[in-house]
Amino acid sequence: MKYVGLHTQIWKNNIKSTVLLILFPAVIFLLVWLFLYFLSEQPVQRIYYTNQNFLKFIPWVSIAVFTWFLIAFLFHSSMIRKATGSVPLERTENKRVYNLVENLCIGAGMKMPKINLIEDDSLNAFASGINASTFTVSLSRGIIDRLNDEELEAVIAHELTHIRNRDVRLLIVSIIFVGIFAFVTETLLRSLRFSGGGNNRGKKEGLAVLIALLLAAVGYLLSSIFRFALSKKREYLADAGAAEMTKNPLALASALEKISVDPRIEAVSRKDVAQMFIENPKEKEKSIPSFSLSVVFSTHPPIEKRIELLRQF
Q1: Domain-located, residue 293
Q2: Mapping DSSP to helix (H, G, I), strand (E, B) and coil, where does residue 98 land?
Q3: Potential cystine with 162: which of 128, 153, 167, 219 (Cβ 3.0-4.6 Å)?
Q4: Domain that holds residue 144
Q5: Which among 60, 55, 116, 53 is positioned nearest to 87, based on CA atoms?
Q6: 40: DSSP letter
Q7: Is beta strand 114-118 parallel, antiparallel or unpaired with respect to 86-88?
């Protein structure tokens, strides 16, 4: 797969980030409007009364979404570290890793990111961050110990390409908004247990929660589809970028072969964080047919396909 170039890819990802920042809130507002519409008791001019109520809800919904986004945006690094069990890796602890990262950054003309270590014998890695002060490359103990220098360099180059292309920023934006729908859906599911009852008020509350739950589930599905569409292509581009950076596509192909055998990081429990890795540690390890629905709803392209493309590079 031909690499489209640094500036072009950064520009495309910045555009996608902007679209996401518009699209996700738009979906949220649409679902709130539909919720008010379905609950409206006005048989005449139903849309008019729905619009009037919706205008009253807009400020509160906007404040809630902005607050969620701001908290996640400011504390995403600590949240990711907690979700993956990663800790800072000092230069004195592993000069080999620091030298590989430093040399690649010098060659690419980019600022060196932070380096984190995941204490796990499995093989995996990911990049995270939204700006130069938070950009981080996290490596598992297994990938450091079980890859040779060329293979590890290729994996690091893959993650640096994600940073250079602003993939990590784009992905974090999508994760934040998908998290909103996931949280609302889970909250409503719990509320549904306590709503209802024999009286009219209880039935009305139960209906409201049920409608909200269905709409939240639709929002979660739509936002997840947006996320899946973003994830696959960025992996191919990062593979191509790593091949361009190291001039050694076969090294990354070899690394991916080893990673495919044992990518599962035990500490990773959240699916949204799992998609940030070079190979998703939460998805099934066994190969699945390319026509399978599982491929459509996976965060990564089949690793066999990625290896095949690298060998043809």
Answers
A1: yes
A2: helix
A3: 167
A4: 6-311
A5: 116
A6: -
A7: antiparallel
The CA angle 283-261-103, to the nearest 5 degrees, is 100
Residue 301 lies in a domain: yes
Whether residue 151 lies in the annotated active site: no
Asked whether the whole model's pTM tops 0.70, one would answer yes
Helix (H, G, I), strand (E, B) or coil at 165: coil
Asked if residue 1 is part of any domain, the answer here is no
Residue 163 lies in a domain: yes
The C-alpha angle 39, 42, 46, rounded to 5 degrees, equals 85
Q: What is the pLDDT along the chain (313 residues), one digit of tens a residue?
A: 454 554 665 566 667 667 766 777 888 888 888 888 888 777 778 888 888 988 998 899 889 888 887 887 788 788 888 888 889 999 999 999 999 999 999 999 999 999 999 999 999 999 998 888 889 999 999 999 999 999 999 999 999 999 988 888 777 777 777 777 777 777 777 766 665 555 555 566 677 777 777 878 887 777 777 666 666 677 888 888 898 899 999 999 999 999 989 888 876 766 667 778 888 776 644 444 444 455 555 667 888 888 988 888 7
Q: What is the total count of domains within the chain?
A: 1
Token pair belonging to 143:
């990938």
Q: Which of 41, 90, 150, 159 is catalytic?
A: 159
